[in-house]
Amino acid sequence: MLKHYVELDYPGTFFPETKVKEIASREDFQPPFGKGLYAFAFFDREEVELNGEKLTSAAKNRLLDNARINGWDILVLCPAGNWQPLQEGESLIET
């Protein structure tokens, strides 16, 4: 069964504090920004039960949904390992 989650990021003393909550749908989620929240990200996980044990997949759809929500059509994998949107007027130089 596919389940939807949201990762909530709050400021911490040395590192950000992160909470993960299961949600019914992304469309109905209301971010609690007034409580110190500064970022959130949606992701999905596949869960199955096998011989009485619950198996959970790794997070899925995180980058894809972020790109869709922000209206980014093209993403570029940078040499540093992060993804950046290719903005209008920018050119891609392959190395």
* Biggest sheet strand line-up: 2-1-3-4
Report the radius of gyration as a whole number of Å.
17 Å
Sheet with most strands? 4 strands, antiparallel
As for the number of domains, it is 1
Strand residue percentage: 35-45%
Distance between the termini: 41 Å
- Helix and strand sequence: EEEEHEE
Total helical segments: 1
Mean pLDDT: 84
Oligomeric composition of the shown chains: single chain
Question: What overall form do the CA principal axes indicate?
Answer: globular
**Which consecutive residue ranges, at least 5 long each, have pLDDT under 50?**
none
Helix content: under 10%
Present the secondary structure layout.
Elements: E1 2-10, E2 17-23, E3 39-50, E4 53-56, H1 62-70, E5 75-77, E6 83-85
Antiparallel strand pairs: 1-2, 1-3, 3-4, 5-6
